[in-house]
Amino acid sequence: MLKHLDLLFWSLVIIIFSRWITMMMVPMLDTTEARYSEVARIMAETSDWITPWFDYGIPFWGKPPLSFWTEALSFRFFGVTEFAARLPSWLVNLGMLGLIYHVTRIITGHRQALIATLVFSTMALSYIMSGAVLTDPFLALGTTLSLVSLILALRKPGSLWRWWFFIGLSIGLLAKGPLALILIGGPIGLWMIWQRQWRNLSHLPWGRGLLLTALLSLPWYIAAELKTPGFINYFIVGEHFLRFIDSGWKGDLYGSAHQQAYGTIWIYWLQASFPWGPIAIIMLIWRGISTRTFNFVFKPKLSDEQRLLLLSALFPSLFFTFSGNILWTYQLPALVPLAILIAMQITHSIPTRKFSLIALTALVPFFVLLIGFYAQFYPEKLKTEKTLVMYYNEHKNNDTQPLIYIGKSPFSARFYSKGRIKVMELTEIKSLIKNNAESIFFVAIANEKADKIISSLAGQVQVEWVNRRFTLLQINGTIPN
Q: Nearest 5°: phi and psi at 255?
C-alpha cells in the first residue's frame, strides 16, 4: 500500500515539473499569451502598479492587475523570459493542488487526495494553464480557495477557514473581476436551494468578511478609475454584461468578440476536462446501467459536500450556456470540484492498479510535451516573432535602425524586442530611408504583401528571414522619389 502511494506521489511530482519543460521551450505565441506578457513587461519597466498598459500610453482596461503584478515581479527577479512570465501561473497551480489535496484528504483520505491532485493536474486545460500567461489560473485560485474554505469552515465553524473564504473572493475580484462573485456565489445559492437549509451559511462572518473583501479589492478599482477615467464603465458594463449578452460585441478595445453557438461551453467542458470528464460520464452511465436506474446523480445518498462540489463543477457550463462570446478557459474553475468528485468515485468504477492510473495521467502531459519539442525545433511554423527578432538582434550594428514593422506589430515582437520596435506605414519608411542614406534598415512585412512592397523599394533590398507570417528585409541605400 505504501509503495503504491509513493508511486502516485512521485508521478504527481514528475507531472508537475514536466510543465517546466514546455514553459521554457515554447515561445510566446500571439495573441493572448504574448499580449499579457507584454502588458506585464511594461508594468515591470515603468513601475506603474495601478494601470496595466496595452501599449505605451494606451491603458489596458480588459483585466484587473493581479496576474500582471505577479508576472512583473517575476520579470524583476528573473529577467524578461518565457519562463519568468509563466512561473506565477505554475506557482498558482501548485497552491491549487495543495488546496485540493488538503480538502480531499479531510473528506475521504490520503489516497483519494493524491488521486484528486493527479486527476486535476492531467486534465487538458489545467495542465496547459499551469504554465500559461493568462488571468484564468488566478481566477481559479480564488474560486478554489473560497470553495475549499467553505467546506472546511462548515466542518469547523470556528476555524480561520471562514476568513479565507472572503480572501478567495478578493483574489477573484483582482484576477478577473465581478465574474468571480458569480462563479463562487452561484453554486452556493443553488446548493442552498437544493439543501433547503439556509442556516448552514450562518457560520461565516458575512458582515466583517465582506468588509475584508472590499478592503482588499476596492482600493485598486478606485485608483484605476481615478488614474484613467472610463475604466469602470468599460470593464463592468462592457466586459461583464455586453460581452456575454452580445456574441458579436463590437466594443472590445483589445481584440474581437468570439462568436460561438449557444451551448458550446458544454463542448468546451469535455475538451477542458479531457480525458477525465469523458471518463466521468462513462462512469455515471455504467453505474446507471448496472443499477438499472439513471437518477443516481440526484439520489439523497449524496453528501452535502458532494452536492456542493457537483454544482460547482457544472455551474460555469450552466451560466455560459446562452453566451456566445466564450473561451474554453472559462471552464478552469469547474475542473477542481470535478477532480475531487472523480477521486471520490474512481475506486468503484475503473481499475486503480497503479499502471493503468498512471497511464491515464500521462496522456495529456505526453502530447503537450510533443508540442513543446515541435515548437523548439520548428519555431518559424508558429505564430511568434521570437526568431525574427533574434535574427535582427544578431545582425544589427551601430549603423542599424530599430526594427520596423509595416502597419502593425504582433505582441510577441514587442515582447521579445522589449518594446523597441517601430511601426510605420510604407510611405514613412521610404522617407526615413531617404533621409538616412548611411543607415541599415530591417523591415518586417506581411508575407502576402512582400512581393509588392519589395518591388516598390529601390536601393539594396535583401530578404533576410521568413517565418509563418512575416518577411524580414534588410535595406541599404536611398530610395528615389
A: 180, -145
Going through 110-265 in order, the beta strands assigned E by DSSP cover none
249 half-sphere exposure, CB direction, 13 A CA radius: 25
Spatial CA neighbour of 6 closest among 110, 128, 138:
110
Give me 171's grid cell: 483574489
Q: Band the pLDDT of 293: cuts 50, 70, 90.
A: low
Q: Would you state the cell numbers that stand for residue 90, as one nine-digit string?
A: 505554475
Average pLDDT value for residue range 18-33 = 94
Q: What Rg value do the Cα atoms of the chain yield, rounded?
A: 25
Q: Residue-wise over 113-125: b if at least 16 C-beta within 10 A, else e? A: bbbbbbbbbbbbb
d(Cα 317, Cα 265) in Å, to the nearest integer?
6
Cα 221 from chain centre: 22
| Dihedral of alpha carbons 237, 243, 248, 252, sign | positive
Residue 340 near residue 106, CB atoms below 8 Å: no
Which of the two residues, 473 and 350, has the higher pLDDT score?
473
pLDDT of 146 > 60? The answer is yes
**For residue 275, cis peptide bond before it (omega within 30 degrees of 0):** yes
* Length in residues, the chain: 481
The structural domains of the chain, with segments of one domain joined by +, span 2-375, 381-476
pTM of the prediction?
0.92
Q: Are 253 and 58 in contact (CB under 8 A)?
A: no
For residues 405 and 426, give the distance between their C-alpha atoms in angstroms, rounded to a whole number.
Answer: 10
Q: What is the pLDDT of residue 471?
A: 95
Residues 311-334, mean pLDDT to the nearest whole number: 93
**Measured between alpha carbons, how far is 163 from 448 in angstroms, rounded to an integer?**
57
3-state secondary structure 300-331: CCCCHHHHHHHHHHHHHHHHCCCCCCCCHHHH
Give CA–CA dist 391/472, Å, rounded.
9
Give the confidence band of 429 by pLDDT, cuts at 50, 70, 90.
confident
* Exposed/middle/buried for residue 164 (C-beta within 10 Å: 0-12, 13-18, 19+): buried
Strand partners, 406: 424
First to last CA, the chain: 82
